[in-house]
Specification:
It is a single chain. By secondary structure, the chain is α+β, with helices and mostly antiparallel strands. The protein contains eight helices and 22 strands. The chain folds into three domains: 186 residues, PmbA/TldD superfamily (PmbA/TldD fold); 100 residues, no CATH class; 100 residues, no CATH class. A hairpin with a 7-residue loop joins β21 and β22. The relative contact order is 0.14.
């Protein structure tokens, strides 16, 4: 029998914004701990809130073994590692003052807009996984997330656009410059460049253009033969400059998953060659795959296959070097798009900007974009820039040649 503890702690302060001013501030500290008991291929789980309750949760977890929840895998063992990233979070007073100062600056420079935010937050997020088989993993990540929704004061829409930064560092002037670029470009209406097929860029953290891999590279779908890519491991399917890998730390997640697997850098696609799907231990055992470090679980839930955190390997070129003097499209907001079961891609782009020399220079009309997964990640793959979209986050420019037309 092995006993394991999975602890999640959220220490966070957040500010809600309405009508371009801070509306409310909230502070929270939530600690949740799950106790897992592994025995004879089964798993019993229970949990508790706060600092007290381990003994009773252990008894409940042992009793839960009677439910015969199958877990035919060995718990992770004999590994100790602790990682702390980020600097001290804002105090409630500091964050309230910072948000007020940022909003005052935007109101002064862009009185045409009404700003809001469901949250601007700063906090430390801790996860720990330990057991009596020698596993002792600990992650503490401090993040600052500033998300601003905007609408013109003459607009009847709930929102016209948005911008954000999320990272381990924060600098007011950098964030103001970034937001001003969006607001200024939004006010400048421009025409769509001629061409039909144009370079189109996304934030590389945008799940829209990667969702087909999240859907088709799931271990259960892939292993059972239901994936578009089933049976194609080892084949060159995409552009040789396209590498898709696991990126928990790049995406501000703990270096380990809910099963204690450290899958940072796990290759799904390498230089265009399909390597492996993402899976938890149970799925990996079923199909003979390797666990990818993407298991997910609530604090008191059974680990299971989770959506993979995927990053596309960047190149040395900056966005300016990638484009030269050629204009391009940057998609800021696209809702309603998808990939078909055959791999076709299409989406409207409700908010898109003209990108010139690495800067947003104007707002384009609403657009319709189309392509296919084979073209996007094959001959029409432009890559991911070496430079960031903004210095305070890990977001980079991800580009493709796409069919573009006005809606």
């Amino acid at each position: 029998m092995t006993k394991e503890k999975y602890t999640l702690i959220k220490d966070e302060v957040s500010v809600k914004v309405a009508a371009s001013v801070p509306e409310s501030i909230r502070t929270k500290r939530i600690k949740r701990t799950g106790v897992r008991i592994y025995k004879d291929g089964c798993l019993g789980i229970s949990g508790y809130m706060g600092d007290e309750g381990e003994a009773e949760a252990t008894k409940r977890a042992e009793a839960a073994l009677a439910h015969k929840i199958s877990y035919p895998c060995e718990p992770s063992a004999a590994l100790a590692r602790s990682v702390t990233v980020g600097v001290k979070p804002f105090t409630p007073k500091e964050l309230d003052a910072e948000v007020a100062a940022v909003l005052a600056a935007f109101r002064k420079d862009f009185p045409q807009f009404v700003l809001s935010s469901p949250f601007i937050k700063s906090g430390t997020y801790t996860e720990a996984l330990s057991n009596d088989a020698g596993l002792d993993l600990h992650s503490a990540i401090t993040l600052h997330e500033f998300a601003i929704l905007f609408k013109q004061d003459t607009s009847s829409s709930i929102m016209d656009g948005w911008f954000e930064c999320a990272g381990q560092k924060y600098d007011r002037e950098t964030f103001l410059a970034y937001g001003s670029q969006f607001l200024g470009a939004y006010l400048n209406k421009v025409s769509l460049p001629a061409g039909g097929k144009l370079p189109v860029f996304f934030d590389d953290n945008d799940g829209l253009v990667k969702q087909i891999f999240a859907r088709e590279l799931g271990g259960m779908t892939f292993g059972s033969g239901g994936s578009l890519f089933s049976g194609k491991a080892g084949q060159q399917l995409f552009n040789e400059n396209f590498t898709l890998f696991g990126s928990r730390q790049d995406d501000y997640l703990p270096f380990f998953d809910a099963e204690g697997v450290c899958g940072e850098g796990f290759k799904y696609i390498e230089n265009g060659v399909l390597r492996a799907p993402f899976c938890d231990k149970k799925t990996a055992a079923k199909f003979g795959f390797r666990p990818s470090g993407t298991a997910a679980a609530s604090y008191d839930g059974t680990p299971e296959i989770g959506a993979s955190v995927m990053k596309i390997k960047s190149q040395a070129k900056t966005i300016k070097e990638m484009l030269g003097s050629q204009p391009a499209v940057f998609v800021s907001m696209a809702s309603g798009g998808d990939f078909t079961s055959e791999g076709g891609f299409g989406t409207p782009a409700q908010v898109a900007y003209l990108l010139q020399d690495g800067k947003l220079v104007g707002r384009l009309p609403q657009l319709q974009l189309s392509s296919s997964v084979n073209e996007m990640y094959g001959k029409d793959f432009l890559g991911v820039s070496g430079d960031k979209i903004m210095p305070l986050s890990n977001s980079r420019w991800l580009g493709f040649m796409l069919n573009v037309s006005k809606m």
